Amino acid sequence: MKLILISLLSAFISTVVLARARDLGIALPGKTGKLNALTDLKGVEVGHVTLISGEGPLIIGKGPVRTGVTTIFPKGKINSPVPAAWFSLNGNGELTGTTWIEETGFLDGPIVLTNTNSVGIVRDAVQRWALTHLTSKNSKEDPASLPVVGETWDGRLSDTRGNHVTSQHVFKALNSAKLSSVEEGNVGGGTGMVSFGYKSGIGTSSREVKIGKESYTLAALVQSNFGTREELTIQGINISSKFKDSIPKLNLESQKDGSIIVVIGTDAPLLSQQLKRIAKRVSMGIAKVGGIAHDSSGDLFLAFSTQVPKKKNGRLIFESIPNEEIDELFKATIEVTEESILNALIAAQTMTGINGNKIEAISHEKIRSLFKDK
Length: 374
Description:
By secondary structure, this protein is an alpha+beta fold. The protein has helices at about 1-15, 100-105, 120-135, 165-175, 240-245, 270-290, 325-345, 365-370, and strands spanning about 45-55, 65-75, 80-90, 105, 110-115, 150, 195, 200, 200-210, 215-225, 235, 235-240, 260-265, 300-305, 310, 315, 350, 360. The chain has a six-stranded mixed beta sheet, with helices on both faces. Helix 3 packs across helix 4 (about 165-175) and helix 6 (about 270-290) packs across helix 7 (about 325-345).
């Protein structure tokens, strides 16, 4: 019965069209893709499983539960390693599998996002799933043998120590990943997340970029769970000075700052060292919304290209944009990071979790009023 209710809730959430930053009059730069999402990249699939159950006092192992899993496939459900790199702005967090990405310059398998305490079960589940679902005639290696799993802490709202994410939830999130528009806000790994004292979660955005005669797409997906109320900045405006919203009072044994995981994808041909440079520029997008990378925050970023090197006579043949032409991709990275964070905030809805802790969504009416004449 519990799984049926979860499935019905997930289906309901997926049918609700939630507002995004541009819908509220925020004039963001750049030309977006058709979906303004990571799935504007050909072949990229995204899936969520959302777990919401229970209310009242925290009972570890029982709930309340406000958590989930988000999956990203750079090339669909096939075993096709893609050029990749990662960067840590502040490392109080986890993104597994990154040492092998650093060593080889390739990402093998899906990227999965969840809560802090579920990284182990999710990692093991991805490995099991990949052995039977990610097959390739061109590779003798075990697919996703070192899975990439990122986390942020949802302990303000969820029984994060209760281990409510199971292998079956991970399998469902992997199997349900699709090419279409991406659900945002209180979904998947972002279900219990909070940013700047407001409800937050998953957000995404894309840009179309022209370099010479060629057109490319660059996009982001974020799991946003960082920042303090006084830091939030939208288009240069400090929001706390305008809105005067009360800061939520939470009934917790301990409080900690949150984190943010950012995944950047592009169809531009880039080498792993160039993707590292892309990943570093995510920091500037976070700064535009007021983030400062707190000491206790895990700010971890991964960038990949869907342009896979060709193989000829037993050798890999790489193509790449010259470094002197990469600035437009840097700019797009900053823009999609900023917009994805704002979309995560604006799409999220007010949520009550453990011990009656209530996190309000940011007011759409106040944002519309603030930006109506901009």
